[in-house]
Amino acid sequence: MKISSSMRILNLIILGWIPNSLATDKFSDNAGVVNNSRLFVRNAVQASELPFIIKENEDKPNELWGNLKGPYPTNKWWLNLVMDSGNGNIFPYPYKVSASSSGLSFGQGKVVTEGSKTKIAENNPKWVAMCQGGFESRRILRYDDLTVDLIFESVLNEKKYNMTSYIMKGSPYMTFKYQSVPPRLKYFGSRLKALEQKDENKKSFIAQLMNGEQWAIFSTTPLDLAVDDEAYDSTILYSTQENFSGFIRMAIIPEDKPISSFQTLLSHSNAIPISGNVLFEGNSIIHVYGVFPEGQEKNLLMLSLIHHREYLENPKYVDRLGEYKTLRGDMLGIVGNTWKLVYSETSGKSVDFIHKREIPEDYASLMISSLKSENIVKVHNRRNKSIYFKGKQLARLARLVLIAKQLGQTERKNQIIGEMKIYFDKFFGYKTANPLYYDRTWGGLCSKDGLENSEADFGNGIYNDHNFHYGYYCYALYAIIQSDGIQSHWVQSHLEKIKFLVMEFTSSSNNRFFTKFRHMDFYDGNSWVNGFFVFDNSRNTESTSESVNSYYSAYLLYSCLGMEEDAHIADLLLTSEIISAQNYWQIKDDSVYKKPFTENKVVGVLWENSAEYTTWFGNNPEYIYGIQMIPFTPISFKLLNKEWIRDAWPTIKQRTLSPGKYISQEWEGIIKMAGALVDDSINENDFNALWSYDDGNSKTNALWWIFNCKTY
Hints:
- Pfam families: Glyco_hydro81C, Glyco_hydro_81.
- It is an enzyme of class 3 (hydrolase).
- This protein is α+β, with helices and mostly antiparallel strands.
- Among the domains are: about 1-30, no CATH class; about 70-325, Golgi alpha-mannosidase II, domain 4 (Beta-galactosidase, Chain A, domain 5), CATH 2.70.98.
- It is about 30% helix and about 20% strand.
- The strands form seven sheets. Strands 7-8-9-10-17-14-13-12 form an eight-stranded antiparallel beta sheet, with helices on one face.
- A hairpin with a 3-residue loop joins strand 7 and strand 8.
- Helix 6 (about 360-375) packs antiparallel against helix 19 and helix 10 (about 465-485) packs antiparallel against helix 11.
- It is globular and about 85 Å long.
């Protein structure tokens, strides 16, 4: 890819070799890279600009955010670098990384498999990249769609020095730029066996450790690297140069091809990724990495996962590089700074036809009878004020609206819409007990209860599960607008709030109100949801099906609002989310996981460092399977892969529905709806026998689902 002049100057700004003052608006057309870097100071958002009332969040950004201004990212994979003390783990695959006042720690662990969990082993040996004399402070320097830069700084005798780490997922190297300071590299967990200089220019080395690991060390400038022989149970390498400036890159050498892997790492070590941006083009998501120095773009070496390799256009793989083992399977080398993931179709658009199908009269009569007998919940009168559960109740009504429309039941449809409007009028008008406010501190919409108590509303006030929560509201609003039309008085009276709500978690550009793509991790292809919560395993997502629902709802809502570009991007996010769900949550025969964990057939909670057969609310099998299925809408036919269900169904059925097992009717309905995709014995009678359904589900929706299972 040809690099524009704005990209070249941006690269120099990122490297700190020209001042930020040159980063003016004329570079903002560079695919959003400059804006993503937060190089501009934004004025505080004023109340007159917003359709929601403003409140401040009690949780404030700390000094680790440095000079960055809001709106802030709240679910990025690197967020542990700035939460609490900033020393929590992050996982830029294939490495585990953490920061401290000493420097940046990194290492690679072994994958360990158990019955209920597969994970990267803890307490692994690790390097710490530091300097002679130590650092006084650290902060985030910049970030973008795919990368983050962390700078460590000190002043000694009025002289400033620093080390910047360029951190990203998918790089076989850990990269550090030292400025006027001698590097110091300490390895905890093993002594050095040998340090081998590999070239006469002192730019490449191999550190062989007593535990069997071999690490390649590369430098862009000559490096006088010495060994501290007094280190007892560790390895210390240090530079004898007092004023070293340049890049140091380190990479573990894969065990399966050590010789050719080192040569491959050496030949690509001078192509240094320093930024990463995501673009959308047609049915493609494109990753573009900024590379230093200019001219090395085609030489960039990165690592790919299985969900990349299924869709990459014209990939150039590197056979001579060994495999990097991770929780998500083997990472394989790929060369070039542009990754184009091409999808044959987008998921949302592919199911648009389902609600347009004609339902045969005999089956339609069953559904109409059920529809007329449904309890139309008065959401505004319900005592439970939870943002999440209110959303599920609204989405249940939305399903009834869309089914009623398909059946030609206009009177019933309008009655249900009327109840939904009553709630939204109160909700948007601040006449409910738990409305939404615009959080000016971070830049997002948070519930009243969430802002007052960080544990309320599942952590809504600290940005946990926003896509889960607001996806249900967006689906309900779509059902209303799809019926009434965008020009209706009711829609127009709430239009700005409706747009703000869907933009809160799907904003496709940097703006003064919301961060870009609040939850999406573009390298992993899926969303992370745990907000400001800090865990040793870093990011997690439990219900990938609710993530899928959120982007499906956004796609539908943007479409009926006439915001076609945003709708298409939401559909691409939806497609990506489904692909990752099918690779990393749904366990098939060719799974990235190993036995005995694969016998579970599903992941309940996926972390960056661990896949677990459990949920946050219990270990019952019906919870673990069901949470990866709800809610049931047209997009569920794309998410619930029949091949997976067919393979998993005997296990799911035995663990949840076999004689002697007791599960609630709410969960029984969910499990049987999924089973109906492959089990012909499940029919209308199974759902007529149930008198209680999940608060986001209904008998009518189950009957609609059964009909489509037979004919989809």
